[in-house]
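hey
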């Protein structure tokens, strides 16, 4: 059964058979920085339960056997891939809609939002204008 990686941030937990399918990134692990092996996007892996990688949104089926075992429509696979991205970014389930609308992209270490491209912005000048309008009406 074969599956193809749709992302490049899936860690290798076994020694890959083909080094051309992987890359290394320096990461902090156990208090020290060391190279960690990741699968390349587009790498194809043969694994008895490759369909699990499809169901988790990390891969797409690369053969009919995997497609049948995963038992997912293209829409379901797309939803699983989006859910995987949210999970990797640590998006809380109550913020899924805000994340999808682009209002936030993640969280700061203190738990506050990292605003996305569609986040609402409030200018102090706009508030002052509203107060002036209110005063004119009186």
């Amino acid at each position: 059964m074969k599956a193809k990686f749709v992302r490049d941030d899936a860690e290798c937990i076994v020694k890959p058979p083909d080094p051309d399918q992987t890359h290394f990134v320096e990461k902090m692990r156990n208090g020290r920085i060391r190279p960690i092996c990741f699968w390349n996007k587009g790498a194809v892996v043969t694994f008895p339960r490759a369909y699990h990688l499809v169901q988790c949104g990390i891969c797409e089926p690369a053969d009919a056997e995997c497609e049948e075992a995963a038992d997912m429509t293209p829409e379901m696979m797309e939803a699983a891939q989006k859910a995987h991205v949210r999970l990797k970014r640590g998006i809380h389930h109550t913020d899924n809609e805000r994340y999808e609308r682009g209002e936030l992209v993640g969280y700061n270490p203190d738990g506050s939002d990292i605003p996305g491209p569609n986040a609402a912005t409030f200018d102090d000048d706009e508030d002052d204008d509203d107060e002036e309008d209110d005063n004119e009406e009186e």
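The first strand starts at residue 2 and ends at 5. Residues 2-89 form one domain.
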